Amino acid sequence: TYSAQDSVYKVFDLKNYTMLYSISDQNVQEIKISPGIMLLIFAKGSGHVPLKILSIEDGAVLQSFNHPIHRNKKVDFIEQFNEKLLVKQENENLQIRDVRNSELTEVSKTDFMTPSAFIFLYENQLFLTFRNRTVAVWNFRGELVTSFEDHLLWHPDCNTNNIYITSDQDLIISYCKADSDDPLSEEKCGSINVSNILTGKCLAK
Length: 205
Prior knowledge:
The chain has strands at about 1-5, 10, 20-25, 30-35, 35-40, 50-55, 60-70, 75-80, 85-90, 95-100, 105, 115-120, 125-130, 135-140, 145, 165, 170-175, 190-195, 200-205. The chain is mainly beta. The protein has two domains: about 1-110, Thrombin, subunit H, CATH 2.40.10.480; about 115-205. A four-stranded antiparallel sheet has the order 4-5-6-7, with no helix packed on it. Strand 1 (about 1-5) and strand 2 (about 10) form a beta hairpin.
């Protein structure tokens, strides 16, 4: 929970609703949750953004560091996936940083444009991006793994609430635009498409 008046985040145990610990810092801009850890994103400094990785269980600081950024450019997103930190600024390359050893991988801004949404696939160590009705699968080496042959989403600005990923993380089920050869498909209705995440093949619709 968050108290805007006091600038305090409180973390509770959902088993018995007891408060585990609190985080009090007016400079915290955003918090990202990843299995077992929590990423605190602080207000930008001069040419960097301060970050802290905490243990969710007890709030202990596991790592604290500054990630360099371009001072006059908007930060499109900062995302945490286990030990990988994804940072993208406006009109800049995607940066994938391994927080264990500070190893940095960059993906060209022409290959990776800022998506409207993400889904992380923890079992497969991959992530899905959604942009302009299209879905793509990436690995953490910055390589495009899959683009889909017949999976054009119905909504241009995708909301991940409309996307279903199977528990094995091998299939994606979405409400998509119907066959483009049908002149009435745009106005009438779409189709529910089932595609393989690793191959991009459409299995059913």
